Every structure is written in C-alpha cells, then in structure tokens.
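User: Round two. Same drill as before: sequence, then structure, for each protein.

Assistant: Same drill it is. First protein:
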Amino acid sequence: MKNIAAALVFFTRLPFWRFRAFNVPTEYFKQVINYWAVVGWLTAVVMAGTLWCAVQVLPYSVAVIVALLSRLLITGALHEDGLADFFDGFGGGNTRERILAIMKDSHIGTYGVLTLIFYFLLFYLLLSNLDLHTACFVILAADPLCKFISSLITLFLPYARNEETSKSKTIYRKMSLQTALISIVFGLLPFILLLKFHLWVAIIFPIFVFLGLVLLMKKKIQGYTGDCCGALFLMCELSFYLGITVILKLVQI
C-alpha cells in the first residue's frame, strides 16, 4: 500500500500528502513507475466521469476539452511537460550529453511547442470521433494500459542519469515479479473487461510505438529519463486511440 501511496503522490497533484497514510519514506518513490498503472485507474475514472457529466450540459466537442483538462489538472501536466522536453531534446540535440542537457532545461523550445500542439489536436480529434459510450470505455482502458506498457521501460533500458542529476532526484527500480503481476492486473484488467474483443487488436499500436521509442532512446542516450517516461505514455496512449479509430472505421466498411 505504501508503494501505491507513493505513486499517487508522485504522479498527481491531488493533496494526498495531507493524509498521514500517504506520508511514506523516500525509498518508496523509487518504485512509483512500477505502480503507474494503478494511478491510471484514478486519472481514467476522473477523465471518463468528467466527459460523461460534461456532455449532459455541454456540446460533445466542448465536453471532450473539459475531460482533457480534468486530467491535466490532476497530473499538473506532468506527462505533457515530459513530452515537450523529450522532443526538444531529441529534436535539438545531436549528442547524448546535449540531448540530456536540453531535456533538463525547464524552458520549452520550438520542437516542444509544435509537439504539444499536434498532440492535443490529434487527441481531441480522435476522442471526438468516438461516441460517448465508446469514448468512456476507451478512456478507462487506455490510461492504465498505456501506463503499464510504458512502465516496462525499466526492463529494457537503464536510467540515463544518476540520482544527483535526475530532475526528481529519483532513479526508478526495475520491476520485480511481484510488482510486475500487480502492474499487469491493473494495466490489462480494464482493457479486457471494458473493450469488445475486436478492439483488442488496437494494443498492437502502443506496443510498436513503445518498441520504436525504446530503440531511439537506446541509440541516442543509451537509457531513459523521467521525461522519456512521460513521452512514452502519451505517445502510446495516442497511438491506442488511433488504433481504436482505425478498427472502428474498418468494421464500418
């Protein structure tokens, strides 16, 4: 439970720290990525619930924006910041040292701005293309699923910085068998229970995106950073929505 508490504190901006049960030792924060999928249940429920409630009083297109905003408020745009830094670094750096230095810089660059514009535009259009019922179920499945897939990065690559130069001053630990089982359950359960069988094929999209980005990180910086994790999650999630849209389009033909 302390590992889950640490993950909720680390990945959200909700005031969990006010509660005694969430005041956990620093050591537990090294495991947060292994419990990322658990946090996905919270952010997914909030986002899907916001969409469902907002559409009762607002046009669907506006409700989608409100739903996107709800997750940004909960996470403090943590992952979106990582996405922008990732593309700034990999787009503007030509050496390992330069890429890592750019990603650590808090100022956003041209690559980061353009990435966020196209990311939110694509996310909005893909989510708006789904009917309300399907959109809510896809949100509930996609968030924890793609956080689970992204958390597997620790099994493929080492952390690219040391603890002193890390932004969060935390180096994630690799998954143990126990944490892997917990992550699998929280990551796959909504996907299996909430989505129709023919939509399961969409999982191929985030898997390929994950593998492609892992190869890029291995080539460029021989590891990963916290920004890489945020970028991984958002790109995997976006590709999952794209996969769902493609499958639904093919079914209609």
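Second protein:
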Amino acid sequence: MADISIQIKELNEKIERESAFIERINQEIRKVIVGQKHLIDGLLIGLLSDGHVLLEGVPGLAKTLAVNTLAHTVNAAFNRIQFTPDLLPADLIGTMIYSQKNEEFQVKKGPVFANFVLADEINRSPAKVQSALLEAMQEKQVTIGSNTFELPRPFMVLATQNPIEQEGTYPLPEAQVDRFLLKLVITYPSKEEEKQIMRENTAHEFPAANAILSTDDILRSRETVKEVYLDEKIEQYILDIVFATRFPADYHMPSYTNMIQYGASPRASINLAKASKAYAFIKHRGFVIPEDVRAVCHDVLRHRIGLTYEAEAENMTTEDIVTEILNNIEVP
C-alpha cells in the first residue's frame, strides 16, 4: 500500500510539471475568447485524449473562433471546411486528377489532411459526406481511388452543428455521433461577458493568440495523460454510470426503462475514462477522483443515449437522464 502511495506521489509531481503548459494555453485562448470556460476545457480534453469534439449551439457563439484560436496556440496545420448541402466527399478527402503533362492520374489531397479539421455546420451536409468524414475520424486514414493515406498526427475533428430544429439541417447518424468523444452544448454569454465581447470586436485591433506548443508537445502530453492513475473503485463508478443508461431498473430507476430507447455503448465507458484522466491532467493531478468523472459525464453521454417517444412527449432530455443517474449512483 505504501508503495502505491509513493508511486502516486511521484506521478502527481510529474503531472504537475508536465501540465504546466495548460495555464499558458488558457492565457492565450482568453486573449481572444471571453468566458466560455466549459468550452475551452472541453476542447483541451479532446486534444489531450486524442478524441473528436462536437460543438452545438446557435450561430454567433464563437464556436468557430474558439476552435481556430486553439489551433493557433499549437503550431499545427489547420483547415476549415464549410459543410453545405452540395458538398461532395471529394471536396473533403480529395480526388484523382488527370495530369496531361505526366499522362497519368495524380492524387489531389483534400482539406481533411490537417492536424485540426474544423467541420463547420456539419449537419448541413448529406449522409455521403458525413460517412467520408467518419472513415477519417475512426480509421485516421483516407482512401482515394485505390490508394490509402495516413492522416497527420495529431488528427482532431472539431465539428460545429446547429440545433436540429434549425432549417436545412440533417440529423447526424448515431454511428457517427458516437465517434465524438464529447458533445459540448454552448450557451449565451452573460451580460458582462457580452459587453467585453462587443468592446473587443469594435476596438482598433482584435487580439490574437500566439503559438506556444508544437505537435510533438501534444503527442507527448497524450502519453502522459495515459499514465494518470485510475483506481478500480473509479472504474466501477464509470461502469455503473454507463450500465445505468442500459438497465435503469437495476439502479433503482424503473420509471426510466420506458424513457430510454438505447443506452450508451462500450465506447462511452472508454471515453468517460479517457476524458476523466484528461480532466485530472488539466487540474494538475496524477489521479482521477469522482468529481472528475462527474465533471465530464454530461459531455461524454449526452449524445449516446436514445430517447423513446414517451420521453420526448414528456420533454425529457438526455441531460435529465444523466443528471438523475449521477444523483442515484453511489459515489465511491
């Protein structure tokens, strides 16, 4: 037992050193983004966990600007793709072009070949385009003609989507939504924050973030995040939360059986563990505590639970279900 305590103490000191750059990244992002702490934390968790992030909110809430700013703090390749109803898979991944000079077909790579890919308004494009992005997200590779190309590392898709009620949107397939580590819901700023936003946007010069990290720094940090200690009790806590979405009656919530069409997949357990480790790292800690799991739980689970018509008729949301699960399951 003493050995474990010593190991955790050493790990804690290592994580404290290795995570020092988090403050610097936050400082750079805050030069540009006012408020939105939850959004910034979510983007950093995605970056450190090698996961993709889906951002949902009405237009004008700085979703695109936040992603752009994060990409600027890392000296990495960044591409933005505006998803429209007439977008084709070739516009995303690339295509074969005939070269008259060489008398042969050559590969022209698309904008998905970057470290950070911002898929803007992803739910405005039809299924074919979304499935092309799905291969890139899942396999970290792209097939053009008969050639398969590895995508650069790190590779991260940050997708923004408008709320489904908005005109001209296609719901994303469940299989694709499940590929996102987190789904962050962005809300309006407070009156004070909006006053500051207004001042910055009408000033002579708009602030800009500086590059303070390289892609190698990110890859090294990801390896360190994997070392964060996850106790068996915390593992059990994560499993209880995920299993409660599948079998609510087993967790003293029989009334939710008719509300949930399908529960979270095993990918939810993996991502909840990954995101909790990354959150602990952001807080400069070498071990995960239950509060870390609770802090990321809504963002990891809100897009992985299917609701029945009954739940929708009662205006029940996945947020409500996750909150109820967290209130019902014993904290270790």
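The domain at 21-87+113-221 is CATH 3.40.50.300 (Rossmann fold).

User: Perfect.
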